[in-house]
Amino acid sequence: MYNGVGLRTVRGSATSGHVQKNLAHQPQRPKQDYQKDMEKGMSKSSIASRKPNKEIMEHQKKRQIELKLMEFREAMEERNWDEDEIEAKVAEVRKKLMNEELKVADAAPNLNETHAMAAEKERETKKFAR
Fold first, then answer.
1. Nearby residues of 106 by Cβ (< 8 Å), 6 or more positions away
2. Residue 76 placed within a domain
3. Is 5 helix (H, G, I), strand (E, B) or coil?
4. CA dist., res. 110 & res. 112, Å (int)
5. Does residue 19 fall inside a structural domain?
6. How far apart are CA 37 and CA 47, in angstroms?
7. Is the dihedral of CA 122, 124, 125, 130 positive or negative?
8. Residue 4 lies inside a defined structural domain of this protein
9. How distant is the alpha carbon of residue 89 from its chain centre?
10. CB within 8 A of 13, min separation 6: which ones?
11. Measured on CA atoms in the order 33, 37, 38, 40, is the torsion positive or negative?
12. Cα gap 116→127, rounded to integer Å
C-alpha cells in the first residue's frame, strides 16, 4: 500500500503491486460562463461611456443617402432612362438630400448605432446636469 492507495497485499492479484499515478486524470476546472462575460463586456453602460465620433456619424448619414441614390438609380435604369438623364437626376436628388440632411442634422438619430447612442446619452446627461 502506498499513501493509502493500492492493495494491502499483492498475493493472489496477479500484479506486482507497483502503484502509478493516472496520467489521464485531469481535475475538473470550474466552468466559466463565457456568455455572461461577453454580455458584461457588451453592456449598454460600456457603450454609453464612449465619446461620440462626429465623423463616423456624418459618414453613416452619407452612406444612407448614397443607398437611397443607388435605389433611385436602379429604378430609373429599370425604366430604361438614358444614362445622361440618370446622372443629372441623381446629382439633383443628391444635392436635395444633402441639403435636407443638413437641416435635419440631429432630428432623429439612429439609436442602433453606438456613436448615435453615445451622442444621445451625452445630450441626456447634459440635460440632467442643468
1. 119
2. yes
3. strand
4. 5
5. no
6. 15
7. positive
8. no
9. 37
10. 7
11. positive
12. 16
* 72 grid coordinates: 433611385
Instruction: Kindly state the cell numbers that stand for 61.
Output: 448619414
Residue 100 inside a domain? The answer is yes
Domain that holds residue 54: 49-129
Dig out the grid coordinates for 66 from the structure. Answer: 448614397
pLDDT per residue of the chain (130 residues) written in tens, 0 to 9? 556 777 777 777 878 778 788 888 888 888 877 777 777 766 655 554 667 778 888 888 889 899 999 999 999 999 999 999 999 999 999 999 888 877 665 555 566 677 777 888 888 888 888 8
Residue 49 CA to residue 62 CA, distance in Å, equals 25
> How many domains would you assign to the chain?
1
Q: What residues does 2 pair with on adjacent strands?
A: 5
Q: What is the pLDDT of residue 56?
A: 83
Q: What is the pLDDT of residue 89?
A: 94
Tell me how far CA of residue 4 lies from CA of 1, 7, 11, 19, 27, in angstroms.
6, 9, 17, 11, 20
Grid look-up 460600456 returns 46
Q: Which three cell numbers stand for residue 124?
A: 441626456
